[in-house]
Amino acid sequence: MDAVSIYVNYLAIVPTVVFGILLIISKPILKNCWKYFLSLFIVFCSFFILTGYFTSNSFHTLSFTAFYRTLINFPQSWYLGSTFQAPRYKLYNAVRQPISYRSGSIPSNNIVFIIDESVRGDHLSLNGYKRETTQFLDELNKKGLIKNWGIAVSGTTCSMTSNNLMLTGLTELPDVTYKVYQLPTIFQYAKAMGYKTYYFDGQVSQLWNGKNSDISDYGEWITSKDWKSPNKFDIDAEIAEKINEITTASTGNFIWINKVGVHKPYKNSYPNTETIWQPVSSDEDFTVIYDKNEAKEKIENEYDNAIKYNSNSFFRTLFDKGIPSASFFIYTSDHGQSLSENGETVSHCSNTKNEANVPLFMIANIKDLNQVDTGYKATHANLFATILDLMKFPEDKKAYNYATSLLKAKASDSQARYYFVGDLFGKGRSKKYPFDQY
Ligand SMILES: [Zn+2]
Rounded distance, CA 311 to CA 137, Å? Predict the structure, then answer.
């Protein structure tokens, strides 16, 4: 049925053109310009709403008609649904599975889950990159304070889908039964185990990860508008300062962080004075699209400058008093990045392997680090169960069959990894792509 609706989508051009020609022939177009466009608009909308209702409404993610179709079909798919699917608002409003278990003891550690933005795993000197981009982390590593799984794989190549998967631990994709709206969030587990919860978002001031009903579980929810730094590139260090205050003064905290990170255009992530590698790109475009004429070397220089400044300023501030006791810092990025090195036209949300290439490591005091096996080929999917283990949530009370915890996984348990691209619910050309070449 997907193929049918894709073709129906393209057919939209037929009634539009026919109707346009009829109007042009019958009336002098200049005199009745507004009538022409109004009529055309009505025909266009009616066509999309009708076909949206009677087909599964699939389309090429980046096609021209998809834009109009999504725009016009939003009220229809949200409120009315189609012959294929209940109205989206009903699916979205499903009540999440509750966590009935309650811990009888007070949590004795801090768990800090740091999700960076657009940081590609193989551009960290910590992971052997040719340039020294992560000097501070390299020093921590030499002291044995990092357990590093190296290059890991993100759930998807786009921020929102990737974060929603980490929030719920969902592993079955495509999510045809809308489980992402029903599974308990990691915050529900944190509360069940007695943690005080925090959600620090450096990027956005509105809710974009989870549902409205989840906000009460986020505890102290600090968003983009609440940070004081006048420069965007200083917000992550301000967040680090806040985490530093909390984790050095108390235990029993669960903190989720969405960093500002190094989203395109990369030069927004560092001050001019911190330009180490030159020349840099002149790209000012905040979307995922690269200028076709931009030199790859400039993109790479700009990107590496951004990582170097952002990583060092964040982690230096976070650990200026050393690693707090009984605290675990889990770090990854929402997705990787294509730097157009193979002629790609977009930076992320597409289907190249570099967009799913993410760092993944844990920082803690040596005595607190478990005898984990970092030879295991890790993915984002492993993080949910890892956090549950750090919280000491009982195995038999889990609400879902989550992927293996990194505290338990051995190198020999590794399986071929994949990343998912497109609509989580399986619309259009969404698909799993292999990451490892066995
Ligand atoms: Zn992102």
Answer: 8
Which pLDDT does position 78 carry in this prediction? 82
How far is the centre of ligand 1, averaged over its atoms, from the C-alpha of 25 (Å)?
A: 49
* DSSP letter for each residue of 313-378: HHHHHHTBTBPPTTEEEEEEES-----STTS-SBSSSSS-GGGGEEEEEEE--GGG-----TTS--
Name which of 249, 237, 246, 238 is nearest 219 in CA terms: 246
Which residue carries 């193989």 as its tokens?
122
Domains of the chain listed by start with CATH number: 2-92 (no CATH), 110-434 (3.40.720.10)
Ligand 1 centroid vs 415 CA: distance in angstroms?
Answer: 25
- Distance between CA atoms of 195 and 197, rounded to whole angstroms? 6
Between strands 327-333 and 418-421, the pairing is unpaired
Q: How far is the CA of 202 from the centre of ligand 1 (A)?
A: 12
Q: Quick one: tokens of 438?
A: 């066995």
User: How many whole angstroms from 92 Cα to the centroid of ligand 1?
Assistant: 22
Residues 76-110 have pLDDT tens digits of 778 888 877 788 888 899 999 999 999 999 999 99
Helix (H) or strand (E) holding 34: helix 33-54
Q: How far is the CA of 117 from the centre of ligand 1 (A)?
A: 5
Helix, strand, coil % in the chain, rounded to nearest 5: 40, 15, 45
Alpha carbon of 68 to ligand 1 centroid (Å): 24
Residues by chain with Cβ below 5 Å of ion ligand 1: 117, 159, 334
Residues counted in the chain: 438
